[in-house]
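FAQ

Q: What does a record look like?
A: Structure on top, sequence underneath. For example:
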């Protein structure tokens, strides 16, 4: 935020920020008894995506960057899986989840591209 490093201008970084915001938005509507279970897991995974992208961009070697981007993409998959369970439990409708679904797809595609670039 204060450092204004180059990675903050990347689309993938912006997408991950949007993903985190969408995860926080949708999990506010989940039942109170999920506050320390599914809600925390989804939010933790969303922050993991954003933070691993930031840290990966700061690494000098392609191999190190690739590993952080792979971890971030794994967290995107984790969010998608958890949201699938939340939908099956009727915590949110597909309509309510659509903005999050779009964000999940954007992040997955962008991170896959970053991983490919790293070789």
């Amino acid at each position: 935020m204060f450092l204004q490093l180059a990675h903050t201008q990347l689309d993938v970084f912006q997408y991950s920020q949007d993903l985190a915001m969408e995860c926080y938005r949708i999990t506010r509507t989940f039942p109170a008894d999920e506050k320390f279970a599914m809600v925390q897991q989804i939010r933790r995974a969303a922050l993991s995506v954003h933070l691993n992208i930031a840290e990966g961009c700061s690494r000098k070697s392609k191999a190190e960057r690739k590993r952080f981007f792979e971890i971030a993409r794994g967290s995107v998959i984790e969010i998608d899986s958890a949201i699938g369970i939340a939908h099956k439990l009727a915590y949110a409708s597909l309509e309510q989840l659509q903005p999050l679904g779009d964000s999940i797809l954007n992040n997955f595609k962008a991170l896959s591209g970053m991983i490919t670039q790293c070789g």
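Q: Is there anything notable about this one?
A: The helical segments are 11-27, 38-57, 62-88, 94-118.
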